[in-house]
Write a structure and sequence with these properties.
Keywords: ATP-binding, Membrane, Nucleotide-binding, Transmembrane, Transmembrane helix. The chain is an alpha/beta fold. The chain has helices at residues 5-15, 18-22, 24-39, 41-63, 67-72, 75-117, 128-172, 176-219, 222-230, 234-286, 292-338, 397-404, 427-432, 448-453, 460-470, 472-477, 499-512, 529-543, 555-558, 578-584, 587-603; strands at 356-364, 374-382, 386-391, 412-417, 420-421, 434-437, 517-521, 547-551, 563-568, 571-576. The chain is elongated and about 115 Å long. The structure holds adenosine-5'-triphosphate.
C-alpha cells in the first residue's frame, strides 16, 4: 500500500521547530474564530467585543501603579469604582456570549464530521491510517473544537491586558520592556515544549488507544458477550487490555517526568532572568539613569507585567496545545473531503430504467490487499434476467456486487448502466435504482419499520408487500409493538430477533426498494428450508420486469437462474445454463455434485 498522507503529517509535527510551532498560533486562532463565526456571528462578535472592552477597562484603571494619581485626584477613585462595576458587567456579558458560543461550535463540528464520514468513499474505512486520523478527530479533536475557541478569546483578552502594561513600561524606560520579556521567555519555552511532548506522545499512542478502545468494546458489548463467555475469552482480552493500558500509563509517566524536568529548567531560568532584571534596574539606579521614584514604579509595573505576560503565555500555550488537536480535526475534515466521491461530470443525467448492465474488464484490488479481488471480469446482464454468481469463498462475488452498486470504483475496466459508466453517474440516483440485500447486512437499532423502509416515512402498501414476499410479516406479527418495535434489546422495550428472522427483515429491506436491479448476496444462509424455498419463489416473481443478480452457495436454488456465472479467484471461470455447465464438467459441476452427494448420502 502507498504510504499514507497522514504519515507525512506525523513527520512534519515531529520535526517542527519551536518558533515554527509558535507561528501556528495565529493561524489556529484565525481558523477557530472562523468556525466560531460560522456557528454564530452574533455570539462571536459579542464575545470578542465585550472581552476587549472589559480588558481595556481593567488595564486602564488598575494596571498602572496609581499611588501618585490617587493622591492627586480623589475623583479618580470614584471613576475607578465605576470602572470596576462596568468591567464586572462586561465580563459577565462576555462570559455569557462565550458560553453560548462553545456548544454551537461543538455541534457544528460534530455535524460536519459525521456528514463527511457518512459520504466518503467506502474504501476509506479499509485504510488504517485514515481510521487513526478519524479516531483522533472524534476522540479529542471534537472536544478541543470548543476549547480552542475559549483559548482564542483568552489570548485576545490577555494580549489587550499586556498591551496596556507594555505602554506604561515603555514610557518609564525603554530597557524595561525587553527585560520583562526576558523574565517570561523561559517559562514560555518550557510550556511549549511540554505541550509538544504531550501531543507527540498522544499521536504515538493513537494506535494502541484505538486497540484498547476496541478491546473495551468487546469486553462490554452485547454483540460479543455470548461468544466471549462461551470461549472464556474474558481473561485473555482483559490481559491484553491491561498490557496496553500499562504501556500507555508507562509512556504517560515518562512524558510527565520529562515535562517536569523541562518546567523546572524553565522556572530556574525564569528566576535567574528576574534576578538579572532587578540587577539591571539597580545598576540603572546607581548609574543615575533612573530616578528612585521611577525605579519603584518600575518594580511594581514589572510585577504587573509579569502577571499579564504569564496570563498571555498560559492562554497562548492553551491555544497552541488545543490547536494541535483541533488541527487534527480540521486536517481530518480536509482529508475526508478529498475522499468524497468526485461529482458527476457536468451535464450527467440520472440513470434511466435498466436495459443492460455491462461489466467490462473490471480489475479491483482492495487498498490493504496484496492480491486483486477481481482480475478482468466481463459480464452482461440484460433487463429481466436472473443471473446467479457462484464460486468458492473469496472468489470475488461480493466485491463484484459492490462495484455494480458503485460502492467501489474499478481500477481498470468499467461497469456500465445502459452503456454509461456508473462511476460517472450521480451516485444517489444510481443507488435508488438498485436494491441490495447484503451478505453482512446491518441490524439497525431502530424500529422494524425503519429497518425495512430505511426512511422516516414508510409507504404502507410497499411495506406490507415486501414483508409478505420475504416472510418478514410473520416476524413482525409476533412483535409486541408490531412495526413500531425497536429491534435492539439494549433500548427500553426493545426486542431481538433470531438470525433467520433478521434475514427476513433484511430481505424485506431489499424488496421494499422496488428497484430495477436487485442484488441479493447470500439471502438465505440463515433461513429454514420452507422460508428459503419461499424466498426463491419470490425472487422469480420479483424478477418479472426487473433484473436480479443472485449470489449464493445454495446451488440447488441456482437452477432457477437464466444464467450462471462461476467466479474463480477473481475471474469468470465459466458461464451458461445449469445443464450446459453440468455437461462441461468444470468447477460448477464439481461444486454442484459435492452438494448433491451430501444430500444423497443423508437420504440413503
Ligand atoms: N475490505 C477488504 N479489504 C481487503 N481485502 C478484502 C476485503 N473484502 C474482501 N477482501 C478480499 O477480497 C477477496 C474477494 O472477497 P469477496 O468478499 O468478494 O469474496 P466472496 O466470493 O464474496 O466470498 P464468500 O463466498 O466467502 O462470501 C477475498 O480474497 C477477500 O479476502
Amino acid at each position: 500500500m502507498a504510504a499514507s498522507r497522514y504519515r507525512i503529517h506525523d513527520d512534519r509535527m515531529a520535526e517542527a521547530t519551536l518558533p515554527g510551532m509558535l507561528a501556528r498560533v495565529p493561524g489556529t486562532a484565525a481558523t477557530a474564530l472562523r468556525w466560531a463565526w460560522r456557528a454564530s456571528p452574533r455570539d462571536t462578535a459579542a464575545t470578542l467585543l465585550l472581552h476587549a472592552a472589559a480588558g481595556v477597562l481593567e488595564e486602564l484603571f488598575s494596571a498602572v501603579p496609581t499611588a501618585d494619581r490617587v493622591a492627586a485626584a480623589l475623583p479618580a477613585l470614584l471613576a475607578l469604582a465605576g470602572a470596576a462595576v462596568a468591567r464586572g458587567a462586561l465580563q459577565a456579558a462576555a462570559g455569557w456570549a462565550q458560553a453560548r458560543l462553545k456548544p454551537q461550535v461543538e455541534r457544528r463540528a460534530e455535524v460536519h464530521l459525521f456528514d463527511l464520514t457518512a459520504r466518503i468513499e467506502l474504501e476509506s474505512f479499509d485504510d488504517s491510517s485514515f481510521n487513526d486520523a478519524m479516531y483522533r478527530a472524534r476522540d479529542r479533536g471534537l472536544y478541543e473544537a470548543g476549547r480552542v475557541i475559549d483559548a482564542a478569546v483568552e489570548v485576545l483578552s490577555a494580549a489587550i491586558g499586556l498591551a496596556a502594561v507594555a505602554g506604561v513600561l515603555a514610557v518609564l524606560h525603554p530597557v524595561l520592556l525587553p527585560l520583562l520579556a526576558l523574565t517570561v521567555a523561559p517559562a514560555g519555552w518550557a510550556a511549549v515544549r511540554a505541550a509538544r511532548m504531550r501531543y507527540r506522545q498522544m499521536r504515538e499512542l493513537t494506535n494502541g488507544r484505538r486497540r484498547k478502545w476496541t478491546l473495551g468494546d468487546l469486553l462490554a458489548s452485547r454483540d460479543s458477550a455470548a461468544e466471549l463467555r462461551a470461549y472464556t475469552m474474558g481473561r485473555f482480552l482483559l490481559e491484553e487490555y491491561t498490557r496496553l493500558a500499562d504501556r500507555e500509563r508507562a509512556a504517560m509517566l515518562a512524558v510527565a517526568r520529562r515535562q517536569t524536568a523541562v518546567r523546572a529548567v524553565g522556572d530556574a531560568a525564569g528566576g535567574a532572568a528576574t534576578a538579572a532584571t532587578y540587577a539591571a534596574l539597580g545598576a540603572l539606579l546607581l548609574a543615575g539613569g533612573m530616578p528612585l521614584a521611577v525605579a519603584g514604579t518600575a518594580v511594581l509595573a514589572i510585577r504587573q507585567g509579569q502577571a499579564a505576560l504569564q496570563t498571555l503565555l498560559f492562554s497562548v500555550n492553551m491555544m497552541y496545545e488545543s490547536g494541535l488537536y483541533f488541527t487534527d480535526f480540521t486536517e481530518f475534515c480536509a482529508a475526508a473531503r478529498r475522499r468524497l466521491p468526485p461529482p458527476p461530470p457536468a451535464g450527467a443525467r440520472p440513470p434511466g430504467p435498466l436495459r443492460e448492465l455491462a461489466v467490462r474488464g473490471v480489475h479491483f484490488c482492495y487498498p490493504t490487499a496484496e492480491e486483486p479481488a477481481l482480475r478482468g471480469v466481463d459480464l452482461r446482464v440484460r433487463a429481466g434476467e436472473i443471473v446467479a454468481l457462484v464460486g468458492e469463498n473469496g472468489s470475488g462475488k461480493t466485491t463484484l456486487a459492490r462495484l455494480i452498486c458503485g460502492l467501489y470504483r474499478a481500477q481498470r475496466g468499467a461497469v456500465a448502466w445502459n452503456g454509461a459508466d456508473v462511476a460517472e453517474l450521480p451516485g444517489e440516483a444510481l443507488r435508488r435504482r438498485i436494491g441490495l440485500i447484503a451478505q453482512e447486512y446491518c441490524r439497525w437499532p431502530m424500529t422494524a419499520e425503519r429497518n425495512v423502509a430505511m426512511d422516516a416515512a414508510a409507504d404502507r402498501a410497499r411495506l406490507s408487500r415486501a414483508a409478505r414476499q420475504s416472510g418478514a410479516d410473520a416476524v413482525v406479527a409476533r412483535l409486541a409493538r408490531g412495526w413500531d418495535t425497536v429491534l435492539d434489546p439494549r433500548f427500553a422495550q426493545g426486542a431481538d430477533l433470531s438470525g433467520g428472522q433478521w434475514q427476513r427483515i433484511a430481505g424485506a429491506r431489499g424488496l421494499y426498494r422496488d428497484a430495477d436491479l436487485l442484488i441479493v448476496d447470500e439471502p438465505t444462509a440463515a433461513l429454514d428450508a420452507r422460508a428459503e424455498h419461499a424466498f426463491f419463489e419470490t425472487l422469480r416473481e420479483h424478477a418479472r420486469g426487473r433484473t436480479v443478480v443472485l449470489i449464493t452457495h445454495r446451488l440447488a436454488s441456482v437452477r432457477m437462474a437464466d444464467r450462471i456465472v462461476v467466479l474463480d479467484r477473481g475471474r469468470v471461470a465459466e458461464q451458461g445454463g445449469h445443464a450446459e455447465l453440468m455437461a462441461r464438467g468444470g468447477l460448477y459441476a464439481e461444486l454442484y455434485r459435492l452438494q448433491a452427494d451430501a444430500y444423497r448420502e443423508r437420504a440413503a
